[in-house]
Recover the amino acids of this structure.
């Protein structure tokens, strides 16, 4: 996918894919405590971002737009299109980039463990269909 090898964790039996994007200094394992409960209603996909965890370490492509494209390719390769999306910390920025690039495919988007930086207020000025962002408190 985009020349990068993304490691990911997958769990759950629900019909709706829930993509969980980890924060700075973390990897997909940060989401493990949620797998049992959320896995009842969702199919959880938790990737390691490019260069982190067990994903490959590339020389370039560490901007949020490219990271979002990496995850989009992963989602497509797993046979999904429409997703729910959660980002934590830096993962929130990647989730935002994902929703900006693929707004019709993100049915719901949330941030976890960080305050809304005001991005939702400016999103509508740049894009015609802002995603539904909000605060997701664990």
């Amino acid at each position: 996918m985009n020349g990068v090898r993304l490691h990911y964790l997958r769990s759950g039996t629900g019909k709706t894919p829930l993509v969980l994007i980890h924060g700075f200094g973390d990897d997909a394992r940060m989401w493990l405590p949620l797998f049992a409960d959320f896995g009842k209603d969702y199919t959880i996909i938790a990737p390691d971002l490019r260069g982190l965890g067990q994903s490959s370490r590339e020389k370039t492509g560490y901007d949020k737009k490219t990271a979002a494209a990496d995850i989009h390719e992963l989602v497509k390769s797993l046979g999904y299109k429409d997703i729910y999306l959660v980002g934590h910390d830096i993962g929130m920025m990647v989730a935002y980039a994902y929703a900006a690039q693929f707004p019709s495919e993100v049915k719901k988007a949330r941030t976890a463990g960080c305050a809304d930086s005001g991005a939702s207020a400016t999103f509508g000025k740049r894009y015609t269909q802002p995603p539904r962002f909000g605060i997701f408190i664990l």
